[in-house]
């Protein structure tokens, strides 16, 4: 993974909780070009894992044929989080930052049907970039931007410019402001492609309606910002690694992948959000508690594979083919 040495060139407070942070190459040269939907992983002092932030690429002027002059990020402050957003909100112009080169796990696809872009909260960052790209390409699209209130809608001016006439705001604190996903999805042309970026509950709702409507999976694209988080009622469980014979305890507030790493193993993973499938491990005994968005319903029902970055156990013990 290419690591970039960057410097903060500008910081702006966009809403009470969201800051825009602009980063340029420390050596003054152009940064690797990228596309709507891409993210960078920023190293955070004191945290083992870098934090992923989508790039805001609505400014066409920031792109040159040789690369991109700057990367803009939108970061929502999570006061109770692990510390990534607090670090980002503490950055000042001139500070140094290390980040991975952009990678795009949430690209716009080629399709003739309209794109329906749905953003929840800070999920607007890749959606704004997509709106700009679709507008530039002359492709049909609409944007639904959901937030708890209008004052929490970051990048609104840019979004209104990029999605003029195709934008609907859903401020939950206004009468009828909440987006009715079921009604929206039921009324869409069936060749529409949905792009969703927002909190887990929004994605879960979209997935539930997509099942009801038999929405083709290939027409549903999404990205979560959240990594694995403990849920109410989570219990510790035991894992046995059949190949090595190791037996480890997975506490209620840790993932299998975390426990394996702490024990000196080298588990494969990437997204740590249950989306990419990289961390799949065969289950030899026990009942997985699937929390990922990668396995199909039938694969989950079969219980033969688990995504160790996020899923847990319904049984007291899992035996894994590791
Ligand atoms: S690391 Fe991506 S699904 Fe687990």
Tell me what you see in this structure.
- With 322 residues, the protein is of the alpha/beta class.
- It folds into three domains: 3-100, Translation factors (Elongation Factor Tu (Ef-tu), domain 3), CATH 2.40.30.10; 115-224, 3-Layer(aba) Sandwich (Rossmann fold), CATH 3.40.50.80; 237-320, Roll (Ubiquitin-like (UB roll)).
- The protein is built from seven helices and 20 strands.
- A five-stranded parallel β-sheet has the order 11-10-9-12-13, sandwiched between helices. Strands 15-14-20-16-18 form a five-stranded mixed β-sheet. Strands 7-2-1-8 form a four-stranded antiparallel β-sheet.
- The protein is globular and about 60 Å long.
- The relative contact order is 0.11.
- The mean pLDDT is 93.
- Bound molecules: FE2/S2 (inorganic) cluster.
- The site of FE2/S2 (inorganic) cluster (FES) has 14 residues, from loops.
